[in-house]
Amino acid sequence: MKTHHSTVLFRTALMIGALALAFAACKKSPETIGNGLISDDDYISTYHTNDVELVCHSYLDSVGTKNVSNALLGSMDDPIFGLSQAGFCTQFRFSSAGQNFGNNPTVDSIVLQLYLTGYYGDTTTWQTVHAYELADALISDSSYYNYTEVALENIDYANGYQFRPYPRTKSHVIGTDTLAQPIIRIPLNNSLGDLLMGLDSTAYRDPEIFKQHFLGLCLKCDPPAGNGSVSYLNLTNNSYTVLQLYYHNSDNPERAHRYDYYVTSNDTYFNQITHDYTQGDPDFISQVVDGDTILGQQRVYLQTMGGVKTKITFPTLSHWNDTLSEGCHIVINEAKLIVPAAIVDTTVFTEPRTLSLVMFNASGSTAILPDYQEGTSYFGGSYNSNSHSAFFRISKYIQDLVSSGNQKPYGLSLGINGGGYNAHRLVVNGPDMVTDNLRLEVTYSIVNE
Description:
Layout: H1 2-26, E1 43-49, E2 55-60, E3 71-78, E4 82-90, E5 93-94, E6 106-121, E7 127-134, E8 152-156, E9 161-163, E10 172-174, E11 177-179, E12 183-188, H2 190-197, H3 207-213, E13 217-221, E14 228-234, E15 242-248, E16 257-262, E17 269-276, H4 282-289, E18 299-303, E19 308-313, E20 328-340, E21 355-360, E22 366-367, H5 376-379, E23 389-393, H6 395-404, E24 412-416, E25 425-429, E26 439-448
Antiparallel strand pairs: 1-26, 2-19, 3-4, 3-14, 4-13, 4-17, 5-16, 6-12, 6-14, 6-15, 7-8, 7-9, 7-13, 10-11, 15-16, 18-25, 19-24, 20-23, 20-26, 21-22, 21-24
């Protein structure tokens, strides 16, 4: 703590000294900047600094996962972030009303087919999946988060089935069907087919009535034997994601039948994710789990799936105007937050595509920054795989801090986009690193009015 405090005092002294020099120039007419745009009685001096004090630390997050674009399934053992296990709970609806399975129907097989749209991690690792019937109904107007628990029945319909996802496989031949997209097929216990065929006939009259008789399924995965991965699944693409019931009956014993069940955007589903951070890197555990926030000056962490975000504050900005004489004030021309990666992995735990940045309110909730309204091409957030960094342009936000004269302690929250539906993570150099550090680069003018 003493070392950090001394660093803060030193940086503050440097900034005050710089502003004092700027004040001396406040009375001097510029030679080129703004020439012809202002009168001779107005004076502007322009400066640049990348030594603004930042205080930051990583913290545990949570995220809403109801009806997000990707269902998540899989588990990962990350050497830095520890163990993450992702699954989902979902309702189903029948494919056609008034279904009649005929006389003496018998289940041949039942398979849950899932449309695989992407992944994160090592897909060569085997995954062990379990599928349980929901014992609690999912409510359409309720909120669901990564940590939401629901009651489950005891039967594992997947029987601990093992699979490896093949996200690049573009052709699957299933019986007489050829599918041109990657899928995961999970054979389920025939007792689930017996349950579905044995429902009261009224269950097949209306989708909402059906969902009262069959509450849905919850899928989970065991910890992996290696690095593991998380698969991204599109549940509502009914061309590829489907619960398929194969059966025959005594009406025509030689004829095979298939009946399908689907998930649509009118059904409720959510991702359910757990993290065991005690298996992570010791420095990560010390900061994120044990709360040693001073370690954030050296390194901070970002993780989706309701994992980890980073809080950033700027303690000295509200005092910048204090060193100027009456009639002078600071105008922010541009302020860019530079976010550089500390660890680059291009094989397994790869870098994210876009980061997110929002501001905290007094209540602890978050809101978009005023700079975000200018559009993403201005605001930034895209991760550059060549420089292994991202930036955010937050000039309006910084101007507000400088002009307020009263430091707002709420700060910013830095994360990765798609927190509820992808599985990325990133390790970032803290502001006290000597080179390539998390920093704020500011170009500003001192104006004499």
